[in-house]
Amino acid sequence: MSTSSSLKRPIKIDAFKVAIRDMSSDELFNIQREIENSVHHLERSNDKLAKYIAKLEGNHHHEEEDEDTSEVETIDESDLQLFKDSMNENNIVLKNYSQRLEALTQEHIFRTSGKATNENIKSKNIDSDNNTQQNATPNQIYL
User: Fold this and answer.
1) Looking at the UniProt record for this protein, which Gene Ontology cellular component terms does it annotate, in alphabetical order (predicted)?
2) What is the per-residue pLDDT across 52-75, written as a single tens digit (0 to 9) for each?
3) What pLDDT, on a 0 to 100 scale, did the predictor assign at position 51?
4) Residue 101 has what pLDDT?
5) DSSP 32
6) Measuring CA to CA, which of 17, 43, 54, 141 is 20 to 30 A from 99?
7) Exposure b/e, 79-94, CB count within 10 A at least 16 = b
8) Continuous H helices in the chain
9) What is the pLDDT of residue 19?
C-alpha cells in the first residue's frame, strides 16, 4: 500500500543548493551527468511531441519526414490535449533541471575560486543522518 509519505518528490531548488554544499565533487559531477541525461531525453521527447502536435493541428510538413513517420501517421485528434499537457509538464521539469544545473555550476565556481576551503563541513540546515526510524533508505537528493 502506498502512502503519501512514500511518494518521492523533487526537493525545492533552495534545499538542493544547500544539500550540494555537503557533497563531494565526484557526487556533484554524477548528479550533473544524471540531470544532463534527463534533459537530453526530455528534449527529445518534446521534439517528438511537437511533431505530433503539428500533425494534429495540420502544420506537419512532409519534407520533415524521419524515422517517426509511422508513429505520426497512427496518432489521432484525441491525443492532441495529452501531447500538449505532456509537453507542458516536460517544460516545467526542464526549467527545474536548468535551475539545478545552474546551481551545480555556481557550486563548482565557488569551490574552484578558492573560497570553499572547508568542503567537508556539513550544513546544519539539512538532516543528513539516517538515525530516525522513518529513514529506511540512504540519503539521496531526489532530482
Assistant:
1) fatty acid synthase complex
2) 999 899 886 665 555 556 666 677
3) 92
4) 98
5) H
6) 54
7) beeebeebbeebeeee
8) 13-21, 25-56, 69-73, 80-112
9) 94
Question: In degrees rounded to 5, what are phi and psi of residue 76?
Answer: -135, 175
**Looking at residue 77, what is its pLDDT?**
80
Angle between helices 80-112 and 13-21 (to 10 degrees): 30
What pTM value is reported for the model?
A: 0.68
Rg (CA), the chain: 20
Burial state string for 112-127 with b = 16 or more CB within 10 A and e = fewer than 16: eeeeeeeeeeeeeeee
84/51 Cα distance (integer angstroms) = 11
- Spans of the chain, pLDDT less than 70: 1-7, 60-73, 114-143
Alpha-carbon distances of 116 from 5, 70, 111, 112, 125, rounded to whole Å:
35, 54, 5, 7, 18
Q: Which of 49, 117, 32 is nearest to 84 (CA)?
A: 49
Could you tell me which of 138, 94, 110, 93 has the C-alpha nearest to residue 18? Answer: 110
Which sequence spans correspond to the domains of the chain?
10-60+72-112
Residue-level pLDDT at 88:
97
